[in-house]
Amino acid sequence: MALRKPKEPKPAKGSKTSPAKGSEWTAGRGFGQKAVTGALIVAVACGPLALVNATINGRQPQAVAQVAVDAPLTAKEQSAGEYGAAFVAAWLGATRENEGTLATYINPAAVGQLSATEWKYRDLAVVSVEKTDESDLVSVVVAANVEEFDMESESGATVWPRRYFAVTVRVTDAGLSVVGLPAPIAAPAKEDDAVRLAYGQTVLQTSSARQTVEAFLSAYLAGSGEISRYVSPGSEISAITPAPYMTITVTDVKSDVEPSDTPSTGSVVHVLATAEVSSASDQRLTTTYALTLTARDGRWETTSVDLAPLESVEPGADPTPNPSR
Fold it and tell me: Which among 139, 155, 166, 179 is least surrounded, fewest beta carbons within 10 Å?
């Protein structure tokens, strides 16, 4: 018996059959691959730099780490330095018989057994104040000369070495308080590298610029003459009063450029002067001054007493000069 061939179902009226299609995502990816391939072909033709650019151009940009900038200390955080110094003074001066002001900062019972005699100190000063990251604690370093017995002396002599103490101060809206007790620490490391300064020229004694320096410093330090004669108009420089020294001798002057004896108005030269000064009782000191001179009407005048000497930006400049002997 012959089998009937099943009839294929007819499509419904109004409907049309369409050939199979890939998904839009697949087609988009294929198009993207073609585009990248084309870009790479062009990049190869243009050179290695274009090839690298075409390869990384489609990547997502990576996040860049932000540089953290330390916020300046607030007025209250700055006052933590003085608070820490006063705490160190109270801690050194407290004795069994007299606790002094120690109780202002901490319960004396927390200190343990106090000394029978006080630790004598002088020249107490704040060395540094540093804020602790993401905390209300401030680290304070205090220094003082503390009297101690000289262990190498057979006569029981005393010495006054410089000692350093670390103190932690808590700073809140309610006020200041100390955390723990002072901790003796080592002195800060000394920087041995010489700073290179910009004063590579020696100013001769016969130079008009040196004569201005000598006259200015004599008026500034010893009250010799009217200082306004040697100061540029508009510069707010006044002599030290009363004059601290009786005599002054300028022993050396160096400059960043060679000063002319007939300078044109507006010319500027920076100088570093070394001078020996003495008091009425013949006490002597050697000092250095960084000055800025400006020319006006053919002569040099002092424009400023600089707070710091001028550093050199060129290799091979003279290092920090030693005071003349």
Answer: 155
Q: What is the DSSP letter of 241?
A: S
List Cα–Cα distances, 292 to 209, 237, 295, in angstroms: 11, 12, 10
Whole-Å CA distances, 123 to 147, 162, 185: 11, 9, 17
pLDDT in tens, 125-156: 999 999 887 789 999 999 999 999 998 888 88
Residues 81, 60: Cα–Cα separation, whole Å? 48
Nearest CA-CA partner of 302 in 313, 316, 291: 291
Indicate left, alpha or beta for 298 from its phi (over 0: left) and psi (-120 to 50: alpha).
left
Residue type, 155: S
| Best CATH choice for the domain 75-185 from the list 3.40.190.10, 3.40.50.360, 3.30.390.10, 3.10.450.540 | 3.10.450.540
Distances (CA, A) of 168 to 82, 103, 155: 12, 17, 38
Is it true that 75-185 and 201-306 share their CATH fold?
yes
* Residue (of 187, 134, 128, 190) closest to 162 by Cα position: 187
Phi and psi, residue 241, nearest 5°: -130, 140
Nearest to 170 by CA among 141, 140, 142: 140
